Amino acid sequence: MKGEEAILYVADKCPRTHNEKPYSCYHVADMDVSVKGYALLTGGEYGNRLQATYEFIECPKDFADGPTKIRFGEHVSEWNFDVMPIDHRLQIVKITIQYGLNPQKYDLAFDRFAHWWSFRVGVECKKNIEIPINDKKYYANRWFRSVGKEPLWKNDDTYKNPVIIEVWNSRGESARGTVLNLKHMKELSTPRKYLHLDKSL
Length: 201
Prior knowledge:
By secondary structure, the chain is mainly β. It has helices at residues 35-42, 182-188, and strands at residues 69-72, 80-86, 92-99, 104-107, 109-111, 116-120, 125-133, 136-144, 163-169, 174-179, 195-196. The chain folds into two domains: 1-57, no CATH class; 62-196, Expansin, cellulose-binding-like domain (Immunoglobulin-like, Sandwich), CATH 2.60.40. The strands form three sheets. It has a five-stranded antiparallel sheet with strand order 5-6-2-1-11, with no helix packed on it. A four-stranded antiparallel sheet has the order 4-3-9-10. A two-stranded antiparallel sheet has the order 7-8. Strand 1 and strand 2 form a beta hairpin. The longest helix has 8 residues, at 35-42. The two termini are 37 Å apart.
């Protein structure tokens, strides 16, 4: 084998799909890599599984080009939305939202199964999810804590302030972005549209 050592970016957790096609990760220690990454490690040899060793290192500065960005989920409203930070070097540990007449900060809830950060207004939100464990599938309700007391925007003038989203990394550094109104948020939820934050994390 003519492969070489390579630095690869960890994008998310590898799902365990032992008896499902397409096969992905069989074990908690498995890693699913990109086609380009696999070619670097193997020297371009044919195959889909490789026994190798790896270690975690600090992400090189050139891996994240430009400011960190926020990707919005497909469904957004003044009552709820989901976001996913991208183009960041360090782990994201907290996302806050500030809005309304009295701009209080609320923590978004992190869904460790889906990797989205969620905003919900009012009552707790119940979501039915599928949890694959070894060869069986289990179903459970995941509860999001209530993070907002009022909708993001109201029809009156008092609540037409912009929404400020602040993202924090594991070093305590933060970056901010502003959503002007609901129309702006819906534009950001379309494919290949992102909210650019004011710095790189």
